[in-house]
Amino acid sequence: MKETAKLSTENISSLVATGAGFDLLRYYSLPDFLGKEAPSLLYFMGKNIARETSINTFEELYEFFQYLGWGELQLVKEKRKEMIFNLQGHIVEKRLNQKMFKVDFRLECGFLAEILKSVTEDTYECIEEINTKEHIVEIIATKEPE
């Protein structure tokens, strides 16, 4: 089996991709291939990608989201058993305004849940709430019971 390097902001910054190609794969090809299980599988794909990264801080996490073209992630509220993040920016606005596909942020949620486990040492489950009027995706990370 071929061993690969961990993903980091340093090595992914050299990748070149267009958002349109990514969106076609994500919202057209994968759901066609995966069927009704696509949202769940995308969540676990996000977790799998996160396991292959070397992110240790929230700053690295925010930078990684931008490099991947997922938008600007920001922690806006932290409670004892919950963290609330906003995902916004030009990319998110364009995704929310397009009319071709129903968009979701399951991949990002899975990625964030797994990274939070490595950064905080607690296990989280993430869900998204889309605010199309404000062009913001609120991602709610809920700490799972131990």
UniProtKB/TrEMBL annotation:
Task: Cite a single Pfam family from the UniProt record.
Answer: DUF2507
Q: Which domain of life is it from?
A: Bacteria
* Annotated Gene3D superfamilies: Trafficking protein particle complex subunit 3
Q: Under what name is this protein listed?
A: YslB family protein
Organism field:
Halobacillus campisalis
